Amino acid sequence: MEKGFLDKVEDNAAVQTWSETTQQEKGDSLAEGYVSELWDFTRVSVTQNSLQELKEIWDRWNDEIKQLFYSSYGDLPYLLGLKVDKHLFRALAQFWNPAYSCFSFGKVDLVPTVEEYTALLRCLKIQVDKAYSRAANVPIFLKKLMNITGMSEQWVTARIKQKGDSKCVPWKNLKDLILAHPDTRKRVDVFALGIYGLVIFPKALGHVDEAVTIFLTVLIRGYTSSSNFGRNLQISE
Question: What sequence ranges are listed for the domain DUF7745 (predicted)?
């Protein structure tokens, strides 16, 4: 156990060093002398989804199912135990640049990359030479969700909801499916969809966005998303 933990720390440190070196060498994409004014007119929301149900499902699974999940999606379950530092997020707001969807610290842009996600989450199926693009199309969303859940078109159609400018599926429906689905592989895939939708790429509370569903389908096939697919900070003007 101790060796495994130290390995994770070593991997994470290597990713951080690589990221800092790359950013320092390539410089900043913002104009010289740029100063963000975001802090003066924004409100930062740190409201997040409750992860208790995800934790309870994970705790009930036996080692065989957990190993199946690890082999497919890496260390995602570790994210269920992380706590959001609300004070840190409020302090970081002044460094957020909405034009580039990244944090800017002087000459350094802070944006999660595919390589960082791969190492931090240990998801070996990610391939950095593949690209993912969002196709915001209801028929595509419907088909992808059917593939992930293994459910009928009628079942999926009845559960697709409109939230703001995008379609999504309620977490409560996915939770019930995880608990009752006879196919272990599908339960694992839907659970991964829940983590990606509620923890990593949340948009509407208690719902999984269509883009996450499409992304997971690509990931299941062994592909990946573009290096800037992480936009998790919720900032409203």
Answer: 55-216
